[in-house]
Design goal:
By secondary structure, the protein is α/β, with parallel strands linked by helices. The protein has 9 helices and 15 strands. The model has no long low-confidence stretch (mean pLDDT about 95). It binds NADP nicotinamide-adenine-dinucleotide phosphate (NAP).
Length: about 325
């Protein structure tokens, strides 16, 4: 089969489309013929080995040689003890812990797969796992957004932000999206009430305060973010530089005490079994998936370059077959 392989961390040019053996499912695994795989910032981070947490899967060199984690496709074959699916079933999964999605076929433990709901395209299903889990967790589960609250989403023009803006609006919040100038219009079209270009405006320096700051990029210090929270407000960092994340983990709870602010890192329960609510919202037409661009498997490096250079508005999808 064809797969996009890399053996060292680096720029997109280290990726190579090559022939590798088609994997064979072990007892509890399912062989999936990949139809679509969506890109996440975690793919870019895993390619470059930055921030440092992206090297958990190999300190000096990547241990797995094929990236790609949000997959949708059809079951091709099942292992001896895999009983939930049969050949031809349409399935999707977040395989961030295993990876291997930038390939024609991938073997996946049966327990991480879910059937694609009726009426949902394989492309849309591939967009949901990671970004949907982050958005649900950040806005509903941990963010606990209430009607009328002011919510700021930093890095809102990307994949998770696309869903987070829409869920926050459905919950009746007043939403501010922060991202680069290219993405302001797309954030507005998703429902953001206010948009800020982070290259021109420092959201932590405006004097405005928010009940929830969902920070996908942790670009400001926890002290700066604390100033932008209302009394009782929450700040949740999702990803970003390791130094900032560690700082938030170490001092966030302490510096939040006065003003009863909650400052911490969002641990997202990844996996398609945790995104039932957003799947329902998509099926009901209440949340839309905005696919910015589609690329072929042979163009994974261009697609990652596009994402990494900051052009992607919403999701970028690789169409494999
Ligand atoms: N906590 C967890 O459990 C968990 C689980 C999975 C993933 N993650 C992390 O969650 C994050 C998810 O991001 P995603 O997939 O939504 O990424 P994405 O699609 O790349 O979106 C991130 C957005 O942030 C923008 N941005 C970059 N620097 C910024 C700044 N200084 N201020 C404001 N916006 C800025 C980017 O724009 P530019 O194009 O200008 O750079 C981009 O539009 C990743 O960091 C990933 O590692 C966390």
């Amino acid at each position: 089969m064809k797969a996009v392989v890399y053996t060292r961390y680096g720029p997109p040019s280290v990726l190579q489309l090559t022939d590798v053996p088609t994997p064979v499912p072990r007892d509890h695994e399912v062989l999936v013929k990949v139809h679509a795989v969506s890109l996440n910032l975690s793919d870019w981070e895993g390619l470059r080995g930055k921030p440092a947490y992206a090297r958990l899967g190999g300190l000096f060199r990547p241990r797995g040689h094929v990236l790609g984690s949000d997959i949708a496709g059809r079951v091709e074959a099942v292992g001896r003890d895999a009983v939930r699916f049969k050949a031809g079933d349409a399935v999707f999964a977040d395989i961030l812990s295993y990876k291997g999605g930038f390939a024609e076929y991938v073997c996946v433990p049966e327990r991480v797969l879910a059937p694609i709901p009726d009426g949902m395209t394989l492309e849309d299903a591939a967009c949901l796992p990671q970004a949907g889990a982050i958005a649900l967790s950040g806005i509903e589960e941990k963010g606990q957004v209430q009607p009328g609250q002011k919510v700021l989403i930093n890095g809102a023009g990307g994949g998770s932000g696309m869903y987070a803006i829409q869920i926050a609006k459905l919950r009746g919040a007043e939403v501010t999206g922060v991202d680069n100038a290219e993405k302001l219009e797309s954030m507005r079209s998703l429902g953001a009430d206010h948009v800020l270009d982070y290259r021109k405006v420092d959201f932590a320096g405006t004097g405005l305060r928010y009940d929830l700051i969902l920070d996908l990029v942790a670009s400001r210090s926890p002290f700066a973010c604390r100033r932008s929270l209302t009394h009782g407000g929450r700040y949740l960092a999702v990803g970003g530089p390791v130094r900032t994340i560690l700082q938030i983990l170490l001092i966030g709870p302490l510096i939040g005490i006065s003003g009863r602010k909650k400052i911490g890192v969002l641990g997202v329960r990844l996996g398609v079994h945790n995104i039932a609510h957003i799947v329902e919202l998509c099926q009901a037409g209440k949340v839309a998936t905005n696919i910015d661009r589609r690329f072929a498997l042979s163009q994974v490096s261009e697609a990652l370059q596009y994402l990494g250079e900051g052009h992607a508005k919403g999701k970028v999808v690789i169409l494999v077959d």
